[in-house]
UniProtKB/TrEMBL annotation:
Listed name of the protein: Phenylalanine--tRNA ligase alpha subunit
Annotated residues for binding of Mg(2+): 283
Cofactor note: Binds 2 magnesium ions per tetramer.
GO MF terms, alphabetically ordered: phenylalanine-tRNA ligase activity
Organism from which the protein derives: Streptomyces physcomitrii
EC number(s) recorded for this UniProt protein: 6.1.1.20
Domain called Aminoacyl-transfer RNA synthetases class-II family profile: residue spans: 135-374
Gene: pheS
Keyword Ligase carried by entry: yes
Keywords: Aminoacyl-tRNA synthetase, ATP-binding, Cytoplasm, Ligase, Magnesium, Metal-binding, Nucleotide-binding, Protein biosynthesis
Cofactor requirements of the protein: Mg(2+)
Amino acid sequence: MSAPNKSYDPVEVEALKPEQIERMRDEALAAFEAAGDLEALQEAKVAHTGGGSPLALANREIGALPPQAKAEAGKRVGQARGAVNKALAARQSALEEERDARVLVEEAVDVTLPYDREPAGARHPLTTFMERVADVFVAMGYEVAEGPEAEAEWFNFDALNFLPDHPARQMQDTFFVEGTTPEGKPTEGDESGVVLRTHTSPVQARALLEREAPVYIVCPGRVYRTDELDATHSPVFHQIELLAVDEGLTMADLKGTLDHMVQSLFGPDMKTRLRPNYFPFTEPSAEMDMLCYVCKGASVGDPDRPCRTCSSEGWIELGGCGMVNPRVLVACGVDPEKYSGFAFGFGIERMLMFRHNVEDMRDMFEGDVRFTRPFGMEI
Ligand code: DAH
């Protein structure tokens, strides 16, 4: 039995040789240095400090060494791994700093730039269409006129030759605005003498009183009637009113003006027709129709070509018109011996419903941008 070998007898383990450990360390340091970004550094980290890295493998070999050699090899590997970890940490923070500096520049947000987080809305077709109609007349020299929506009963009715017992003046058709009695109590029913205007025609009277003849005005606006809201009625709707007062105006001027309007709005082959009617403020008065702009009358009497827009009538009812009643001229201080005039008014909603095949008038009032947007014209 031989005695234990006490003398230093290092087993030659290739991986633990000092020059090998130094090489592993230097390769790791070089790899970290070469890593241009954090991603590359992560790869180098796995390769040089991970469980399969040369230094980790060398570390594992230490266990196989005789006790005397273990300490020295352990120290060598430990120092090398320490240097590698230190270099890794240094490179890591250098690259992070670099990245942060770059992100600050590349992803900088200029908070002073305009933003569009709120989606753009669209102008309502009622507005754009009223402007379009008004423009037709502005181009001919008419002036846009306005009047109040809460209107004196006198302007809404009396000045326009509605007699006191005219059915339109009754509470079931007209909204009366509540006022205050001289005793300080709220007025009842129609006592206040103030109504929500039932049509844009009172602007005729206002315009005549405010201006000297000749007068040429166009008036788009909101009007009110006590109708229930349904697919074809609304208690609030829009009208456009026209008034021309000058020397020598005749019904031929009215007809020519109407034809010009529908041609401007719907195309050169359009025309209008008049049917006798009654309005207190015009004499003679007429109902005006325009040719159906879809079938141009071709659907009439032809069962093979039915027209949804005009129900194969060939014509679409527009509104009322006529020659200004001399009583209105007198009420507004205009000499009917010298001046004559024509006027017309029609509902915008109805016109738009025809024009865009809108089946339910309520769609126009709900304020849903999905309705307005297809009509174009962003704000
Ligand atoms: N104001 C009438 C209505 O609302 C429409 C109208 C008829 C207006 C004849 C006019 C006109 O200017 O001449 O029913």
